[in-house]
């Protein structure tokens, strides 16, 4: 198989699953050398696990070597609290597997970093999650003899964004890591997706860390093991998609719809119907960018959704990090 060059697509996505789909587009076996993947579905939740094993796989997918888990829940937008509880439980179990894989034991200390901007709703995931985390480090520092078994030292911080602090989030976190010396950093951030269907319905976990602002085209210093000196697990939820991507996806849906009604769509679409996806996307961007219309778009119900998904992630983290919290009943620990 020829090496895939994802740069030609120029599609901004933080999801490894979408990157894999683009890399395997048009292939019969759907496999990428150097990449292992599997998926399972139950109770309306699809869990996809992926491991990028080597540089060849990393180059073709366009993501770093490491493990990625994606939870897709199409009905998550409906606000069903029973489903949210199931998602939190599934998330907790998958996250526990990550902790075991990287050698984090039940007493290791953890720092949770909520990346993003409080004042911009689609970017406020990290700070809202931090607000709902069960922090315990101060108890271990001040009254260790009174801490019940089954808990570990957990601290949390929302460092803000460069535009409001004047300091890179990575630099702030580095300073905290040097003083607090956690065994693990967990970074939570809002992401950008390629597919409209995955906005507000998907959670990604990755042991490769996270790069703040990468999904919206901002090149920022990342939070990774190489930079921080300790393992860093990234958790993200896609909350935005580019207008150009929406237009391109809509064109795809129109093409597929019309093909169901007529075998010959050439008279309808002409040259547009014969263009590759990346060519159409570039054409759409050529039209939108000069007008300033290639906007970041988020659903209108984003306010309610951010509270719900932040509670799901925080509850799952509380259950995964503290043995005393029942993984099968994380709803009891939702704020």
UniProtKB/TrEMBL annotation:
InterPro entries: Pept_HybD-like_dom_sf (IPR023430), Peptidase_A25 (IPR005080)
Pfam families recorded: Peptidase_A25
Gene3D superfamilies in the record: HybD-like
GO molecular function, a single term: metalloendopeptidase activity
Chain positions listed as propeptide in the UniProt record: 1-14
Keywords, ordered alphabetically: Hydrolase, Protease, Zymogen
Record carries keyword Glycoprotein: no
SUPFAM superfamilies the UniProt entry points to: HybD-like
Top-rank taxon: Bacteria
TM annotation in the entry: none
Catalytic reaction annotation: Endopeptidase action with P4 Glu or Asp, P1 preferably Glu > Asp, P1' hydrophobic and P2' Ala
EC number: 3.4.24.78
Record flagged with keyword Protease: yes
Description of post-translational modifications: Autoproteolytically processed. The inactive tetrameric zymogen termed p46 autoprocesses to a smaller form termed p41, which is active only during spore germination.
GO biological process, one term: proteolysis
UniProt similarity note: Belongs to the peptidase A25 family.
Job of this protein: Initiates the rapid degradation of small, acid-soluble proteins during spore germination.
Quaternary structure, from the entry: Homotetramer.
Protein known as: Germination protease
Source organism phylogeny: Bacteria, Bacillati, Bacillota, Bacilli, Bacillales
């Amino acid at each position: 198989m020829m090496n895939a060059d994802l740069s030609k697509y120029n599609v901004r996505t933080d999801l490894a699953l979408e990157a894999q789909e683009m890399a395997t587009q048009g292939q019969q076996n759907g496999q990428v050398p150097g990449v292992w993947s599997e998926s399972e579905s139950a109770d309306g939740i699809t869990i996809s696990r992926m491991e990028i094993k080597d540089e060849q796989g990393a180059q073709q997918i366009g993501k770093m070597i490491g493990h990625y888990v994606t939870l897709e829940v199409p009905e998550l937008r409906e606000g069903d609290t029973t489903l949210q509880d199931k998602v939190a439980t599934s998330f907790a179990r998958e996250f526990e597997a990550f902790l075991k894989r990287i050698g984090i034991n039940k007493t290791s200390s953890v720092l949770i970093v909520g990346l993003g901007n409080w004042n911009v709703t689609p970017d406020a995931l990290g700070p809202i999650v931090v607000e709902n985390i069960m922090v315990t480090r101060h108890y271990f520092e001040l009254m260790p003899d009174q801490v019940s078994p089954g808990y570990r030292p957990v601290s949390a911080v929302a460092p803000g964004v460069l535009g409001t602090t004047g300091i890179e989030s990575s630099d702030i976190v580095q300073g905290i890591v040097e003083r607090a010396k956690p065994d693990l950093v967990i970074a939570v951030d809002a992401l950008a997706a390629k597919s409209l269907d995955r906005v507000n319905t998907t959670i990604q976990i990755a042991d490769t860390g996270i790069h703040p602002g990468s999904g919206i085209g901002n090149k920022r210093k990342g939070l990774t093991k190489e930079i921080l000196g300790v393992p860093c697990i990234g958790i993200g939820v896609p909350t935005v998609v580019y207008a150009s991507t929406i237009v391109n996806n809509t064109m795809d849906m129109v093409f597929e719809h019309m093909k169901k009604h007529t075998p010959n769509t050439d008279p309808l679409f002409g040259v547009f119907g014969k263009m590759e996806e990346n060519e159409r996307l570039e054409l759409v961007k050529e039209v939108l960018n000069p007008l300033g219309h290639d906007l970041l778009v988020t659903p209108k119900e984003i306010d309610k959704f951010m509270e719900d998904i932040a509670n799901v992630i925080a509850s799952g983290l509380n259950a995964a990090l503290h043995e005393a919290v029942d993984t099968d009943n994380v709803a009891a620990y939702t704020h």
